[in-house]
Each structure stands twice: as C-alpha cells, then as structure tokens.
C-alpha cells in the first residue's frame, strides 16, 4: 500500500510538472513567434469556468496530476500475472481512458480545437506505447523467472 501511495504521489508530481513545462513552452513559443501578448494554452471554455486565468492554470496543473495518478494506479493491472499481456493492455487503456477522456473533452473542451485535440491524443498514444513496452518487459521478465524455476525442477 505504501508503494502504491508513493507511486501515485510521484506520478502526480511528475505529471503536474511536465504538464506545466509543456504549457509554458507552448505559450512561450507562440507568444515569441506571433507577438501575441494574450495567448494562453488553455481553451477559452475551460478558462471561463473559473474566476481568473491564474486559477484556471492552477486547476489545469492539478488535472495533469490527476491524469498521472490514473496512469500510475492503472499500472497495477500489469502486476496481475493471471491476465494475459493483451488483456492487460486493453484494461489499462479502458481504465486510464475513463479519466483522461472526460478531462480532455468535457473539462478542457479540446474537441472544439482540432489541433489541440490531435496533439493531446498523440501525447496519450505515446504514453500507451511507453506503458506497453514497460508492461511487455515486466511480462517477459516474469516468464523468464517461471522458465528458470521450471528448468531447475
């Protein structure tokens, strides 16, 4: 339980920081290239949910953290040896999608901004690729251990 809590806290922090850095870089590049002084890498609909832009930015950072926690918690699926690797991947995709899809579509309203939606989905695809590789390596290592035990008998 302690390890799971640590993983969740660590993932929250990493996701929040990475999301913040990404948005900072987007904002910096767009403002530098276009000369726009009022560009904000958040949808206007999302910002409108809050009394100020700064609160919207802060909540956005928290949402990145929540998504990170979901990805971290769902990784427990890969520790269930009774599930096959393909089933693990499918379950991981379903569980994590139940968190990020509502945030991306209902809260961030990215479906109204195709470029932002495509970029965000690409980010999640990369995350799923990384998790599939990690899951595959864990599964492969477990199979090697089982085969070693069987060979010793």
Q: In a few lines, what is going on in this structure?
A:
The protein has helices at residues 2-34, 44-47, 53-74, 85-107, 114-152. By secondary structure, it is mainly alpha-helical.
Helix and strand layout, with pairings?
Layout: H1 2-34, H2 44-47, H3 53-74, H4 85-107, H5 114-152
Provide a descriptive summary of the structure in words.
- This protein is mainly α.
- It contains 5 helices and no strands.
- Helix 1 (2-34) packs across helix 3 (53-74) and helix 3 runs antiparallel to helix 4 (85-107).
- It is elongated.
Spell out the key features of this protein.
153 residues, mainly alpha, 5 helices
Total number of beta strands:
0
Shape designation: elongated
The helix content, as a percent range, equals over 70%
Mean pLDDT: 91
Q: Structural class of the secondary structure composition?
A: mainly alpha
